[in-house]
Amino acid sequence: MRATKPNRGDVAVLGIETSCDETAAAVVRGGGTVLSNVVATQEQLHEEYGGVVPEIASRAHLERIHPVVRRALEVAGAGPDEIDAVAVGHRPGLIGSLLVGVAAAKALAWAWSKPIIGVDHIIAHLHAASLDSLHPPEFPAIGLVVSGGHTSLFAMRSPLEVECIGRTIDDAVGEAYDKAAMILGLGYPGGPRVDARAQRGDERAIDLPVSRLDPHSLDFSFSGLKTALLYAVRGTPTGRGRGAAFERDASDLGEAQIDDLCASFQRAAVAALILKLERAIEQRREDQGENVRAIIIGGGVSANTRLRFEAQALADRRGLTLHLPALTYCLDNAAMIAGFACLRLQAGQVDDLTLSASPAGMY
Asked: Full-prediction pTM beyond 0.70?
């Protein structure tokens, strides 16, 4: 059955997401009701390289964008008459990948005479926790986006009023997980594999550093943790540059040792995230006089079991509500793009066909 045309408070948006290596399309009504969410993953295409290859990613998007959009509309039971706007993640990301999604969104918006709405991919991750949720967050809130490309803290006065208050100065936490998995010989993608092995390990087996930076900083750093893990696995290198040699590698480790290293790495990585979350809550209260009411977390690493547990413990200690995306919406998806675009559309915030792709975000 075809849906009836939504009214102003119940708008329906087709969202498109191609910022990295997931080709995705979704239809969302009213900002939170997901009518369809179709994702074509490229994981197998990039696995042998240990990371995303931009040229391969953009070519795969070209092949998949049309069938993915068509399927999203079919599942939602929606045609152009039931869609109020077309949204697309247009920043940040791999420029070749972004261009595919932006071009597709422009073509549909023009053909259907619909508004086009550009969405910042990072901010959309903060909206993912509101998808299919019966309890939307209260504001002001502290938001945390943790993924393979981003680790950022946000002060949120409303879903549309967002200020970046902290970011990584080197590796994103998801990137650090992928590099840790590579060091340990676990393959790609690293996050789920390290998390799974950490469940069996002793988190205190190796004392890996928890990044703090200076006492007031809300920024993150994970390069030191990655290097500490490298030395724990391979020993201290002799020589410099290309002549450097290590004492051993991951093949010399037993399975229990790898479990312990994963657990120790995960303890330190998550501890750094929780430290900055708590510091942000304190600083907003003391410096801005804001009574933070909620914590919102999004991005691929929001699926991490330890982060979810520790974030809930923090929220309980502080008397806050915690909002995490369903596992379906942790990784890159178009439902978060369409959902956030619904809010922009209702607020009268639309773009036009001059919308461009940008590898850099606002934050």
From this structure: yes
